[in-house]
């Protein structure tokens, strides 16, 4: 998509035209250009987000198990 955003004039008519012209002139591996830098940028964010979500879920379960049984006992009496 960055090729389409950075084009001067009307080099590409659409996404599939851009894909076809890129593969035709530069080969199939040109599609993966920039994959490793993108992965290096997004991977730490993903790891931190999922780790934080997991730790938050553990904390909430501990909190619920501590608080909710006491509330249920009061309702039964």
What can you tell me about this protein's structure?
The chain is mostly helical. It has 2 domains: 1-33, no CATH class; 34-77. The protein is 75% helix and 0% strand. The protein has 3 helices and no strands. The longest helix is centred in the C-terminal third of the chain and has 42 residues, at 35-76. It is rod-shaped, with a radius of gyration of 26 Å. The mean pLDDT is 86.
Q: Compute the average pLDDT.
A: 86
Number of helices: 3
Spans of at least 5 consecutive residues whose pLDDT stays below 50 are none
Helix content: over 70%
Shape: rod-shaped
Assign the structural class, choosing from mainly alpha, mainly beta, alpha/beta, alpha+beta, or little secondary structure.
mainly alpha
Write the H/E string, N to C: HHH
The total strand number stands at 0
Topology:
Blueprint: H1 2-5, H2 15-26, H3 35-76
List keywords for this structure.
77 residues, mainly alpha, 2 domains
Quick summary:
With 77 residues, the chain is mainly α. The protein folds into 2 domains: 1-33, no CATH class; 34-77. It has 3 helices and no strands.
């Amino acid at each position: 998509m960055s090729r389409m955003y950075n084009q001067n004039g009307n080099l590409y008519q659409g996404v599939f035209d851009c894909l076809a012209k890129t593969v035709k002139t530069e080969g199939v591996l040109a599609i993966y250009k920039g994959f490793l830098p993108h992965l290096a940028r997004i991977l730490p964010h993903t790891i931190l987000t999922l780790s934080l979500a997991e730790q938050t879920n553990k904390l909430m379960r501990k909190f619920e198990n501590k608080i909710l049984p006491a509330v249920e006992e009061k309702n039964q009496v």
